[in-house]
Amino acid sequence: MKKPSSKIREEIAKLQEQLKHAETREAERIGRVALRAGLGEIEIEETELQAALEELAKRFRGGKAATSGRKGAGESSTGSGQSEALASGANSGIPSEA
Q: What pLDDT digit, counting tens, does each position of 36-90 carry?
Protein backbone atom coordinates (compact mmCIF):
# COMPACT_ATOMS: atom_id res chain seq x y z
CA MET A 1 0.00 0.00 0.00
CA LYS A 2 1.37 3.41 -0.97
CA LYS A 3 1.72 6.21 1.53
CA PRO A 4 -0.29 9.35 0.96
CA SER A 5 1.73 12.43 0.07
CA SER A 6 0.78 14.11 3.36
CA LYS A 7 2.48 11.29 5.32
CA ILE A 8 5.58 11.54 3.16
CA ARG A 9 5.71 15.31 3.74
CA GLU A 10 5.43 14.72 7.51
CA GLU A 11 8.30 12.24 7.38
CA ILE A 12 10.41 14.67 5.34
CA ALA A 13 9.72 17.46 7.83
CA LYS A 14 10.75 15.19 10.73
CA LEU A 15 13.94 14.16 8.92
CA GLN A 16 14.79 17.79 8.12
CA GLU A 17 14.39 18.66 11.79
CA GLN A 18 16.61 15.72 12.79
CA LEU A 19 19.21 16.85 10.26
CA LYS A 20 19.10 20.40 11.61
CA HIS A 21 19.67 19.15 15.17
CA ALA A 22 22.49 16.82 14.08
CA GLU A 23 24.25 19.62 12.19
CA THR A 24 23.89 21.91 15.22
CA ARG A 25 25.43 19.27 17.51
CA GLU A 26 28.30 18.73 15.07
CA ALA A 27 28.93 22.46 14.70
CA GLU A 28 28.93 22.97 18.46
CA ARG A 29 31.33 20.06 18.98
CA ILE A 30 33.73 21.24 16.30
CA GLY A 31 33.40 24.83 17.46
CA ARG A 32 34.32 23.88 21.04
CA VAL A 33 37.37 21.96 19.83
CA ALA A 34 38.40 24.86 17.57
CA LEU A 35 38.11 27.32 20.45
CA ARG A 36 40.15 25.08 22.77
CA ALA A 37 42.78 24.84 20.01
CA GLY A 38 42.95 28.64 19.90
CA LEU A 39 41.30 29.24 16.53
CA GLY A 40 38.99 31.86 18.01
CA GLU A 41 41.96 34.12 18.76
CA ILE A 42 43.50 33.95 15.28
CA GLU A 43 42.68 36.68 12.80
CA ILE A 44 42.23 34.84 9.51
CA GLU A 45 39.99 35.28 6.50
CA GLU A 46 37.09 32.84 6.50
CA THR A 47 38.07 31.53 3.06
CA GLU A 48 41.60 30.76 4.30
CA LEU A 49 40.24 29.02 7.38
CA GLN A 50 37.81 27.02 5.27
CA ALA A 51 40.59 25.95 2.89
CA ALA A 52 42.78 24.86 5.80
CA LEU A 53 39.91 22.91 7.37
CA GLU A 54 39.13 21.24 4.04
CA GLU A 55 42.75 20.12 3.80
CA LEU A 56 42.57 18.81 7.35
CA ALA A 57 39.35 16.93 6.60
CA LYS A 58 40.93 15.45 3.48
CA ARG A 59 43.93 14.33 5.53
CA PHE A 60 41.72 12.49 8.01
CA ARG A 61 39.68 10.93 5.22
CA GLY A 62 42.87 9.39 3.83
CA GLY A 63 43.38 11.73 0.89
CA LYS A 64 46.42 13.86 0.16
CA ALA A 65 46.20 17.45 1.34
CA ALA A 66 47.10 20.05 -1.26
CA THR A 67 50.50 21.64 -0.77
CA SER A 68 50.10 24.47 -3.26
CA GLY A 69 48.46 26.85 -0.80
CA ARG A 70 44.91 27.90 -0.20
CA LYS A 71 41.99 27.47 -2.54
CA GLY A 72 40.28 30.46 -4.11
CA ALA A 73 37.17 31.94 -2.53
CA GLY A 74 34.09 29.88 -3.16
CA GLU A 75 35.92 26.73 -4.22
CA SER A 76 35.13 23.69 -2.18
CA SER A 77 35.84 20.04 -2.71
CA THR A 78 33.86 18.93 0.34
CA GLY A 79 30.96 21.40 0.31
CA SER A 80 30.71 24.38 2.54
CA GLY A 81 27.98 23.25 4.91
CA GLN A 82 30.24 21.81 7.58
CA SER A 83 32.80 24.59 7.39
CA GLU A 84 30.06 27.21 7.61
CA ALA A 85 28.67 25.34 10.57
CA LEU A 86 32.14 25.32 12.13
CA ALA A 87 32.57 29.01 11.53
CA SER A 88 29.23 29.86 13.05
CA GLY A 89 29.83 27.50 15.97
CA ALA A 90 33.34 28.78 16.59
CA ASN A 91 32.30 32.42 16.43
CA SER A 92 29.16 32.15 18.51
CA GLY A 93 30.93 31.65 21.84
CA ILE A 94 28.98 28.50 22.63
CA PRO A 95 30.00 27.27 26.08
CA SER A 96 31.50 23.85 26.38
CA GLU A 97 29.23 21.02 27.45
CA ALA A 98 32.11 18.58 27.98
A: 999 999 999 999 999 999 999 999 998 765 554 444 444 444 444 444 444 444 4
Euclidean distance between CA atoms 29 and 72, whole angstroms: 27
Q: What is the domain partition of the chain in residue ranges?
A: 5-89
Distance CA 72, CA 3 (A): 46
Rounded distance between C-alpha atoms, residue 35 and residue 90, angstroms:
6
Q: What are 40-48's contacts with CB under 8 Å, separation 24+?
A: 40/90, 40/91, 46/87, 47/71, 47/72, 47/73, 47/74
User: Of the candidates 84, 87, 49, 56, which has an alpha carbon nearest to the alpha carbon of residue 70?
Assistant: 49
Q: Is the dihedral of CA 60, 84, 67, 38 positive or negative?
A: negative
Residue type, 51: A
